[in-house]
Amino acid sequence: MRKIIQRVSLSLFVLMLLAPLFTGCDNRKEEKHSLDVVSGAFFFDSIPFKIGSVSLDYARLPRGYWEQRIQLIKGLGVNTIMVRVPWMLHEPEEGIFRFDGECNVREFCSLAQENGLLVWLHVGPYVDAHLDMGGMPWWLLKDENLNLRSRQKLFMDKVGRFYRALASQLADRQLSRGGNIALIHIEEPDGLQPNHKSYLAALCDSVRSAGFDETLLTVVTTKENVHQVPVDKALAAYSIDDKQSAMSNFAGARKHNPNSPVLCFDVARSCWHVWGERMPLRNLDKSFARLFEVFEGSGSANVSVALGGTSFGHLAGAEIRDGRFRAFSTAYDNNSIFNESGRYREAITMFREAFHRSATQVLPANTDSVEIFEMNMFPETAVTSYSSLFDSLPQAISSQQPLTFEQCGVGYGAVLYTTTLPEVKKGSKLSFEALRDNAQIFIGGKRVAMLSRVDGDSIISLPEEASGTTIQILVDAFGRVSNLFKYKDYKGIVGTVSVVDSKGICTNLINWKNTPLPADYSKASARAFGNLSKTGEPGYYRTTFDAPGEGDFFLFTGSWGRGEMWINGHSLGRFWSRGAQKTLYVPGCWLKEKENELLILDYVGPTQPVVEGFKTPIL
Known about the structure:
Layout: E1 3-6, E2 35-38, E3 41-44, E4 47-49, E5 52-55, H1 66-74, E6 80-84, H2 87-90, H3 105-114, E7 118-122, H4 153-170, E8 181-186, H5 197-210, E9 216-221, E10 235-239, H6 251-256, E11 263-266, H7 284-296, E12 300-303, E13 318-321, E14 324-327, H8 348-356, E15 370-373, E16 378-382, E17 385-388, E18 397-399, E19 413-420, E20 429-432, E21 435-436, E22 438-443, E23 446-452, E24 459-461, E25 470-476, E26 492-493, E27 497-500, E28 506-508, E29 512-518, H9 521-525, E30 530-531, E31 539-545, E32 553-556, E33 562-567, E34 570-576, E35 583-586, E36 596-602, E37 610-614
Parallel strand pairs: 5-6, 5-12, 6-7, 7-8, 8-9, 9-10, 10-11, 11-12
Antiparallel strand pairs: 1-15, 2-3, 3-4, 13-14, 16-37, 17-30, 17-31, 18-29, 19-25, 19-29, 20-24, 20-27, 21-26, 22-23, 22-25, 27-28, 31-36, 32-35, 32-37, 33-34, 33-36
């Protein structure tokens, strides 16, 4: 593959003792090491040590680029990467685990070890990172009696099963056994129950019993909740308050546990890129200042987003903030040091300087180059193959009231709801108890309205209709909310749908047919396609193209409605014409020289069925 070489001065400010630690995947015996806490400080093999870490999400990176992205991060001068493990990725169906291909977290940790980096493993079960349900699997919502993020036996049994599966892959990669997993992190602050000490303690016990029994544990906290840390089981890792100096956040920690090291879980908080809004700018000056302060105060720190990557597939989640539903977009760029394609911004120099201060001993500057893949573009190309979303529908499920996605067995995608209307008189409205997240209303086969939870929509005006007229409601969903305590973000129509006449008399619609339409590439690619005859219709669209070169590109989605795209079976993530994101990142390692398949699931339909490749993103 032809590559463009981007010169990155790899000033590897890593402890000298880390250099000989990792021997890669050859047959030599791997050395065993230790990370301990003595008198409130970290010691690596009895040598004073400060952790300089950056979060790097393998789930948001194409496997073919894992090592290259690790090398880019290493070039910042870090000695550790935080690796967040999304439960949803590894147990997509209950009891069925995946640790192969793009889910091979063992390979990712091994690549980090080969490149001289320690791993701070975040095992959740809630890892946040703006993931769907904070990284927890959707199928947990199928049991209405299950209490998320609680000590409830039903929930903890499922967490324990996941931890055991994960330990079967990674327990032997602990630092004390010759690997590079130096710390294991549990949970996040958003959405935790007010009194969560016993829950965190139970998670610590579950991690230990699963097989991670020789590694320091950390749990996230804030200065207000430091008393919730089970100090006999784990270290406190602080999510610090933006409104105060970094070190002032640790005063309570030292009072609560004098032997706890200064450990900052998230120094440079990311900003959120959501559908319908421009990507906000992050205050990097404040991030630099806080990093300097922590390191100069003999602390250790992690930067949450330095190379955000892409929320491929259905990784992107949502939040409710100030009473508003906000769905996170596919690009997880967030004004990071590196963008989705691995190209750095000017901030890289300042971050290197900050991480330089994290090391007690340093290596000489390394001026080796990291290879950056070429960016390509290709001209506008027509999409001519089409399969209607309403053709070859699966068996519908009958119910008195509409069913949620979860009740229909749909994790991601859409459900088509069908019933009949009573007589609809002039001035009547259609009202939803709760709509999650987007709906299109079809009456007599004609689309008459579109609604979105993003806009707070829950009611529309109806045309006059005779009794018995068929109404269809196509509901598609964004990611699930995860930042609220005890909040379960069921998708689809939640509760009743009613016709309300001009006098306020309400008639609930009953006798529903619920047709599940999961977003599934294997089923979509097996559909029968014909020639496209008209635009603006919900359905599946397909075309093929030859690769424009041997590098990456950004696929323009501005003329398409809302849905998901796949390249050669790899999901590029969600798109929405509302923007502000109007491109999807296409990694060159997922392309072939000839006959690349682009499959588009569009719930709304395009204004123009064309695609085009750009060198730069539109965010």
